Amino acid sequence: MRLRRASIAALGAFTLLLAVPQSASAAIGEFQYSYVGLDGKTHIRALIDPESRECITLPEVADPNASEPAFSPRNRTNATATVFTEAECEGDFFSLRPITGYGTSKLKLRSVVFS
């Protein structure tokens, strides 16, 4: 009788384990970009361990009427970063390879997605 109850309890625990949602995967590392702030100075910002397969609009440059796009991205994550010229991952795009991918000051971006 005890063995039967133990088996049922173990099976129940295993079922619960499978039912627990898995955490979203993230790109491991840092993604850097530069932008010109409202003060007219160039600033460098970084995304640390950004979510994968989720569009990230860069908050400092989200509004095309209020700011110039970001530039000079550096992909130091373990995932491919695809940068877009418009917010919400729209417009022209360019992919940066994992770890060593980068763009010059001529590469403009407002959003990015990691895959």
Reported CATH architecture:
Sandwich
What is the terminal-to-terminal distance? 51 Å
What share of residues is helical?
10-25%
What string gives the helices and strands in order?
HEEEEEEEEE
What is the mean predicted local confidence, pLDDT? 86
Total strand segments: 9
Main β sheet profile? 5 strands, antiparallel
**Annotated CATH topology:** Gamma-B Crystallin, domain 1
CATH class (first level) name = Mainly Beta
| CATH homologous superfamily grouping | Crystallins
Rg is 21 Å
Given the C-alpha coordinates, what overall shape results? globular
Helix/strand class: alpha+beta
Strand content: 35-45%
Keywords: Signal
Signal peptide: 1-26
Summarize the structure.
The chain has one helix at residues 2-19; strands at 29-36, 42-48, 56-57, 70-77, 81-86, 90-96, 101-102, 108-109, 111-114. With 115 residues, it is an alpha+beta fold. Keywords: Signal.
